[in-house]
Write a structure and sequence with these properties.
The complex is a heterodimer. Chain A is α/β, with parallel strands linked by helices. Helix content of chain A is about 30%, strand content about 20%. The chains are: A alpha/beta, B mainly alpha.
Chain lengths: ~350, ~450
């Protein structure tokens, strides 16, 4: 009994000592978030309770072997308690998937009202194509018995009377998404890109024109950290072509010209930022090798970053607008709307969580 | 600060143990008092003065009663103690009820409810009554008395430790490896109950409340989940309190004895929150005359005790009704002694159904919510019998329900005892407890924080 207590006590004391004396870390790479730091100590912060709550966050965030413990919890939760999801993430066929449920009517209404506003203000003279990108949940939830939002209702509500509504569900499968991330895989998007180009009346991409380049660095997607379950990282691929190598990207925020694939982002926390430099409010891609002088304005979220390079064949310019990062009323200060083709391309995930759409 | 948190388990507890075991014997109570006040002040820094005032009040009352044997000091202490409880816990309930009944709009006090006030007030009341009765001598050492009232293992969620039970250990107690090992084992079992079972049931209850696709079956799952949640939450806390007490050399009385095995509601209350039941028996029911009075008076005594039991749990009408429901059930069982002669399975089924239904009332935010919950449970809520969502959660929580049901029986203890008695028993027990510690830590690190249900009492 004494030996047992000593062993148990040593384990506990070791963890306590590490918690007390290991230096604090600034960021958790797996969870992609800053970690809580030691709170300021003063009589005021103690009396108002902010020191205590800050310390509780600090102690939890800075606990030694944090990721190992998160993995232990995920494994116990999933394989011992047989819970179907862990923190809203579930595993199906080797994919980590966010359980997107239920359909949030208010969010959808908000998103549609923003799109309606865009149409009234800027897009009256444009040919508009609207496409909703189904997420992995759409393909994996039914067969794995998971909860998912009512996609049929979402697609139906997203049919815009003033746009050509494109159904992308048949052009994709679960395999077209990363196993550890929310996004789709660029090298598998030719069917979706061709469907979009066909709807826009332009030439689609020919796979023969592209070479596929695997990135050396493994891709640990956003769900890798959230699921905290043992998973192999993804491999990310870039599609290269002569046409793409001539293109330049103007970033309105920084006033800089950027490449289609920003190799500075190869060391970023989120490797997906390689595509069009990650989250940007306003970008214009200039394509000197375009077959026509047509222009495209693309209202988008992050999914568009990977597919846009495949839509460029006929377009002299493609302007990408992310209204999560720019007020719609400010667009006229930067862009001249004069009947360009317009593509509205949003993932179901963003439409169902659209509070950031301005 | 809750026991099932990283700050408690890896910061507070190592610090208190280090200082406590390094301190010489006569300073140990002082160490416990200081750390207990720190523990209390962590959650309630502005109400620390109330705790200190309570300690001083009952300490002086105890001395005065011991010296003079005058009833007036007992009355004074009781009135002040109950008065503080009434002001902090019941004033707004009373004002709200008066406003609702009369149409007045008396202003609410909106005072913060001091954590654990019901527990430590009851401990103090039992102390002065016991001193008045001459069952225990008054505690002359303020530090020892303060350590008794504020003792952090049981300060905020019980069990209600009577002074008489720990008076000798407050003066002098042994610290043995055996006690420490048993205490650690008990603490970890309680931690596992709380973190792995109660908190996961709490998650299901939250998902149920948030769900927009409820069904009759989902309501029954909710009732079952809350029944198990409150048991593992509260008995887990009691296990941790008893375990910690034992590490520090105290032997607290048991608070739970497998209540869901009961074959009658009467038996249930002998097994559930035993320290509260025995407190009301010894300090309210028997002084009122118990059952050695006329039949109407006996009825009144039972109603009074259960009305107070309900109110003790919370200042709301659903708690009042909850208490009175048990008064009615206990009277019914006394009137129909044949109930206990029914087949065992029927008796168990009756108790479990009644208890689960009572907890639906207990956990409702209002009487109207309780009414709506009952309608839905019995198919009058206009809900489908089952939905896809319900089946998802049923599949997802099936193992947890199974573990919860088995965990509410003596089976795990018997298995544990058999393993401990085997040749490799110590090693296996140690490995099991280490695994519990690590997995519970993993849950705490992952942020599944959930306060103890009984903190609000």
């Amino acid at each position: 009994m004494k030996k047992m207590l000593l062993c148990l006590g040593s384990l506990w004391a070791l963890l306590a000592l590490a918690a007390w004396f290991l230096p604090a870390r600034a960021v958790d790479d797996a969870e992609r978030r800053p970690l809580a730091q030691h709170p300021k100590t003063s009589l005021q912060t103690v009396l108002d309770g902010s020191f205590q709550s800050g310390f509780e966050d600090y102690a939890q965030d800075q606990f030694p072997l944090r990721q190992t413990f998160r993995q232990l919890k995920a494994v116990f939760h999933t394989y011992v308690l047989n819970q179907k999801d862990n923190n809203g993430i579930y595993m199906a066929d080797g994919f980590a998937v966010a359980q997107e449920y239920p359909l949030k009517e208010a969010s959808l209404e908000h998103a549609l009202s923003r799109l309606e506003y865009l149409h009234k203000k800027y897009l009256q003279d444009s040919r508009v194509v609207m496409a909703v990108i189904p997420d992995k949940n759409y393909y994996l939830a039914p067969e794995s018995g998971q909860l998912s939002l009512d996609y049929d209702a979402l697609f139906e509500k997203c049919r815009l009377p003033w746009a050509e509504n494109l159904d992308l569900t048949g052009t994709l499968t679960a395999e077209d998404f990363y196993r550890t991330d929310t996004h789709w895989r660029q090298e598998r998007l030719f069917p979706a890109a061709n469907a979009i180009c066909q709807a826009l009346g332009v030439t689609g991409p020919d796979p023969a024109d592209y070479t596929v380049e695997a990135l050396a660095r493994p891709f640990y997607g956003v769900y890798y950290g959230q699921a905290a379950l043992p998973m192999e990282p993804d491999t990310m691929y870039l599609l290269r072509s002569d046409l793409l190598s001539q293109c330049t990207v103007y970033d309105y925020e920084s006033g800089q010209l950027l490449p289609i694939y920003n190799e500075r982002k190869l060391t970023a926390k989120d490797l997906y930022e390689v595509y069009l430099s990650g989250p940007r409010s306003l970008l214009t891609i200039t394509n000197p090798g375009a077959a026509t002088d047509r222009e495209l304005i693309l209202f988008r979220d992050s999914f568009a970053s990977a597919i846009t390079p495949l839509l460029l064949t006929d377009y002299r310019t493609v302007t990408l607008v992310d209204i999560r990062y720019i007020q719609t009323d400010m667009l006229s200060r930067f862009l001249d709307f004069h009947g360009q083709n317009v593509l509205i391309l949003y993932s179901a995930l963003v439409l169902n969580n659209s509070t950031t759409m301005k | 600060m809750v026991f099932s948190s990283i700050p408690f388990l890896y910061y507070f507890l190592p610090a208190v143990m280090l200082v406590y075991f390094a301190a010489p014997g006569k300073l140990k109570n002082g160490v416990l008092l200081l750390f207990s006040l720190l523990f209390y002040g962590w959650s309630e820094p502005r109400l620390l003065a109330l705790m200190v005032a309570t300690i001083l009040l009952f300490y002086l009352c105890g001395l005065a009663i011991g010296k003079t044997r005058r009833r007036s000091f007992l009355v004074l202490g009781t009135v002040l103690g109950v008065g503080l409880l009434a002001v902090f816990k019941y004033a707004d309930f009373f004002i709200g009820s008066v406003n609702a009944a009369t149409g007045l709009s008396l202003p609410m006090l909106r005072l913060a409810l001091p954590v654990g006030i019901s527990f430590y007030t009851f401990q103090c009341l039992s102390y002065i009554v016991d001193v008045y009765r001459g069952s225990v001598p008054p505690q002359k050492n303020l530090v020892s008395f303060g350590a008794y009232v504020a003792l952090f293992p049981q300060l905020i969620a019980g069990p209600i430790v009577r002074y008489a039970h720990v008076a000798r250990e407050l003066e002098s107690r042994c610290h043995t490896w055996e006690d420490a090992a048993q205490g650690a084992r008990r603490f970890l079992v309680g931690l596992g109950k709380k973190v792995l079972l109660a908190d996961n049931f709490a998650l299901l209850i939250r998902l149920f409340r948030e769900s927009g696709e409820k069904s009759v079956l989902f309501y029954w799952m909710y009732a079952a989940a809350f029944t198990l949640n409150i048991y593992f939450d509260f008995s887990g806390y009691s296990d941790m309190a008893i375990g910690l007490g034992r590490i520090f050399g105290f032997h607290f009385e048991e608070n739970f004895n497998y209540p869901y095995l009961s074959r009658s509601v009467t038996e249930f209350w002998r097994r559930w929150h035993m320290s509260l039941g025995s407190w009301f028996r010894d300090y309210v029911y028997i002084p009122l005359g118990g059952n050695r009075v006329s039949r109407p008076r006996w009825f009144l005594n039972i109603l009074t005790v259960w009305l107070l039991t309900g109110l003790w749990h919370g200042a709301a009408w659903n708690f009042v009704l909850w208490g009175l429901l048990f008064a009615a059930l206990l009277l019914l069982e006394k009137a129909l002694p044949g109930i206990q002669k029914l087949p065992r399975w029927l008796c168990h089924g009756y108790v479990l159904l009644v208890i689960a239904m009572s907890f639906v009332l207990f956990n409702a935010d209002s009487l109207s919510q309780a009414s709506s919950d009952y309608r839905a449970l019995f198919g009058f809520g206009g809900l489908p019998v089952v939905t896809k969502v319900t089946l998802y959660y049923l599949r997802s929580y099936a193992v947890l329900f199974l573990l919860g049901i088995l965990g509410a029986t003596p089976l795990p203890r018997r298995i544990g005892a058999r393993i401990a008695a085997s040749r490799a028993g110590t090693v296996l027990t140690g490995l099991f407890l280490a695994a519990v510690l690590l997995v519970c830590t993993a849950y705490m690190v992952d942020g599944s924080f959930s306060p103890f249900l009984y903190f609000r009492f």
